[in-house]
Design a protein that fits this description.
Helix content: 25-40%
CATH superfamily of one domain: Gcn5-related N-acetyltransferase (GNAT)
Largest sheet: 8 strands, mixed
Number of strands: 8
CATH architecture of one domain: 3-Layer(aba) Sandwich
Structural class: alpha+beta
Radius of gyration: 16 Å
Distance between the termini: 37 Å
Strand order of the largest sheet: 1-2-3-4-5-6-8-7
Order of helices and strands: EEHHEEEHEHEEH
CATH topology of one domain: Aminopeptidase
Strand content: 25-35%
């Protein structure tokens, strides 16, 4: 088992499939709702650029740099987003879960915490990770709040960390969960999702 493998992962709230070009049409539809790619502080592909983005992620997977999945809503069986293991550091047993986006209709549902539970369970319980990171743009307050709700703790802010596509500089907020924290984080996520199931 390697960090760049993408086995199918599923629970009641989310299904993750190895990303492929067959997901392009569904993903282009998902990103078109609300023009998600226009959000200046997020890096979301355009509908027209979706196939190219998929091919880029798959190329990087072949190079050993990424592990990309399509996120599916199990109730509809349609791809509604992407997520990825990146900044893979197998020697130090660390990985980042990132380059994640989901269509507007899936936001605020159980899909995101369900998908993150699947990815963190794989990282800590199958890949024996010591730490799992999450990174986001300083100005992406929705993403920062969602990461904190997962149970991750903020490590710090990398200031002027990246040159953004519009010429601005991105300050990157770094969060993480460590292996010692994982049992409590997992329990919290499971309880959160159980409340959704009971509604």
């Amino acid at each position: 088992m390697t960090f760049t493998e993408t086995p199918p992962l599923e629970n009641e709230f989310a299904r993750l499939e190895p990303l492929s070009s067959s997901h392009a049409e569904d993903l282009a539809e998902a990103v078109a709702v609300g023009d998600l790619w226009r959000i200046w502080y997020a890096n979301v592909p355009t509908p027209e650029g979706m196939l190219e983005e998929i091919e880029t992620r798959l190329d990087k997977q072949r190079e050993g740099a990424l592990a990309p999945w399509a996120i599916l809503d199990p109730s509809r069986g349609k791809a509604i987003g992407m997520t990825t293991y990146l900044n893979i550091d197998a020697d130090n047993r660390r990985v980042e879960i990132g380059s994640t986006w989901m269509g507007k209709e899936a936001q605020g549902t159980g899909v995101n915490p369900g998908a993150k539970l699947l990815l963190m369970t794989r990282a800590f319980e199958q890949l024996d990770c010591i730490g799992v990171e999450f990174r986001t743009h300083f100005h992406n307050h929705r993403s920062r709040a969602a990461i904190a709700r997962l149970g991750a703790k903020q490590d710090g802010i990398l200031r002027s960390h990246m040159l953004w596509r519009d010429g601005t500089r991105r300050d990157t907020v770094v969060f993480s969960v460590t292996d010692s924290e994982w049992p409590t984080v997992k329990f919290g996520l499971e309880q959160r999702l159980a409340r959704r199931s009971a509604v």
